[in-house]
Amino acid sequence: MAELAVVGGGGAMPPPKLISYLSSLLQRVADSNDLAAAEEEGEGVSVFHGVRRPGISVRSYLERIFKYANCSPACFVVAYVYLDRFTHRHRSILINSFNVHRLLITSVMVAAKFMDDIKSEALFWLGNEVMACREMPLKPAKNVYYNNAYYAKVGGISTREMNLLEVDFLFGLGFHLNLTPATFHSYCAHLHAETLLLRPSPPPPPSPLNDDLIISIPNTYNTTTTTTTISSSSLAIQKQQHPQLAV
């Protein structure tokens, strides 16, 4: 994957939480499959497989796509559906750190093109499901449409490779691009469940004091040790004297 260049036309809108949820899920899947590949052999290698791991994280890569591709958050849900369909049709191709970036830029591009081709009157049902999924806006802020060369620049690959990945991805899906409201809603719910994994665990409640808690406080000036006994009914300090070291 080539070095990512600065692309013109990027918006200043901060990435939605959906990007964090999706990147967390895909990063966890990629890490798990990386460990499995290190122990086993026989994993399929496709055109999406890179020679080495890209130096950009999944989250940063998704944020870059969101910034420059002008896609609505709903587009990333559709891309997630396509990724799941693709991997279910090709069990030997596992999402890992070598192919997740190319799979992402391809699935987002295909999803963006599919949503652009849907007629406005056919968007009504999808729009209702989008509202149910944290009120994600259905359309991007600007009605701008990009070609494969632009998506290739966003993804850090060549236009020739972008064209190849798109064709392979479409055939891999069997050109099954349509999705029902129930399907869209179920994938929204799955991504929303990812928030439970991202939330920090609450601190454990403080343990109750024992009847007798002994705390030893060393004296740094001599060998005297002060032992403090904390009782539920009284507080006593006992000192134990030790012989001084001979000079």
TrEMBL record:
Molecular function GO labels: protein kinase binding
Gene3D superfamilies assigned: Cyclin-like
SUPFAM superfamilies tied to this protein: Cyclin-like
Pfam families assigned: Cyclin
InterPro entries, per database record: Cyclin-like_sf, Cyclin_PHO80-like
Key words of the record: Cell cycle, Cell division
GO biological process per UniProt: cell division
Record-stated family: Belongs to the cyclin family. Cyclin U/P subfamily.
Protein name: Cyclin
Biological source species: Cuscuta campestris
